[in-house]
Amino acid sequence: MVVPELRAWRAARPHVVRVARSVGPQLVRVAEAVKPPLVRASEAVKPPLARAAGVVKPLVKQPSTVQFTTGAATLGLVVAVTVATAAGPWDSTGQRTAERDWAASRERAGGADHGHVPGTSGKEPAPAPSAASVLAGLGSATGSAPSPGEKALAKVLGPLLDDPALGTDRAGAVVDLATGKRLYGKGADDALTPASTTKIATAVAALTAAGPDHRIRTRAVLEPGTEEVVLVGGGDPTLTARKDADGNASLRDLADDTARALKSRKKGKAGKVTLSYDTSLYAGSTRHPIGPNTNLAPVTALMADEGRLNDSSSGPADRSEDPAGDAARTFADFLHERGIRTTVPGTSKASDRAKTLATVQSPPLSALVERMLTSSDNDIAEALARQTALAAGEPASFKGGGTAVRKQLKKLDLPLKGVKFADGSGLDRADKLTADLLTALLAEAADPDRPELRPALTGLPVAGFTGTLSKRYAGRPGTGVVRAKTGTLTGVHTLAGTVVDAEGRLLAFAFLTESDPPANPATAQQGLDELASTLATCGCD
């Protein structure tokens, strides 16, 4: 049986909850205070009560309903008086001071100290401390706060960047994102090996060329007059064959739709088809100049789960030597499970007359950019460089991608002197970037007139929390307020991103170091983190 809630209780419940919250702490303190005397009193009266109970026991019978009700009411009155007393004094308006204290603590903004609230006891709970914004908005506090002084910045950053532990070659730049003015520069125009900070350039170029809403399609098509089905790769690095697609394009879904479309042609009858796969969208070698590597699969227009041979989704992993062929064979297995028999897949090229049977699409390019930057995903980086090449009319290859990235950045009038793009990921040591270009890229992405570039900022790892910075900055003031892309190769350490300084000003920074022989990796990374943390705590007027 379900007992309906009384209307009176529904109306009173919010007030009871508020009172319970306000008196709870006081009742705990009262209970702790009276517990010892009650225990002593109980021990003292136990013998007399036992004797009295023995005398009156024969006289006591089952209590009547009236007796029971009267006793319960009396006990309830005692408890109510105790609660009211414990709740603290009542103010002139009839509101408990404790309840007002609780309400005041709820209404106050976060911060270390916001002053006394009139009408409260002064003992209200302290609110949570305020934290600086991870990425402050332009045009708000960042535009009105004083900009750091150039001499003051040079005074605090210079000695840190001069530390020999960073390596033999060092460069750095700091830019005020509200004005675009460079506030600090040391070797800022020197082109050094950027490692994975190259991905910032790849991100801006791809967003500019293809747009943040662009999605990469993988298709299954049927050649006219034949029973040949061609799996056409579009270059989606996030295509997955796993049961949980997690928002990515699913090879299983593509098999579902393809099987359904094939069966509809033959009125529900299953048949056998010739299965081929097409990777002709990309040109040139599939192998990165570094050779086989756990950080990158062969770069091809068709792959599932980045060619990973385990169930990982990021970081180093053993990779397939033939990710396109593996994806096609997996697709064949899925078709078999859905009643479509196939031949062993082979390579082919879909004709312009082929009819589309089914299509799946990647997440928007903006999401791919964020994932690439946060996890430093090399497979996505190389795919985005090729999407940039396709949008720019260049061959979708390592060389074509580099040419296209440079072409897009030149359109944005960014400083490219001495700059070279050999790939999209930064794994190639032939890449050369400057601190000046990296800060200019970040400034471009922060421009209020270019919202399409914002993922190049929002994808940056947060110091101490996400991505490649999740295990760095322990105990440093940059934790939570520095957002930056890391770069690491043997003898190369870089860091580029944004930070809100002590005055609330949003700054972009880039620090690059390289050394032969290599510097100590841990020491070099700590030195870069110290530079960014110094910016976070610097008023530097």
Question: Which descriptors would you attach to this protein?
Answer:
single chain; 541 residues; Beta-lactamase; six-stranded mixed sheet; 14 helices; 11 strands
Short characterization:
Residues 97-116 have a biased composition (Basic and acidic residues). GO terms for molecular function: serine-type D-Ala-D-Ala carboxypeptidase activity. With 541 residues, the protein is α/β, with parallel strands linked by helices.
What does this structure look like?
The protein contains 14 helices and 11 strands. The chain has 2 domains: 150-211 and 368-537, 3-Layer(aba) Sandwich (Beta-lactamase); 217-363. The chain starts with 6 loop residues before the first helix and ends with a helix. With 541 residues, it is an alpha/beta fold. Strand 4, helix 7 (251-265) and strand 5 (272-278) form a beta-alpha-beta unit. Helix 1 (7-56) crosses helix 3 (97-107) and helix 6 runs antiparallel to helix 9. The strands form 2 sheets. Strands 3, 4, 5, 6, 7 and 8 form a 6-stranded mixed beta sheet that branches. The model is unreliable at 1-31, 48-63 and 77-142 (pLDDT under 50). It comes from Streptomyces apricus.
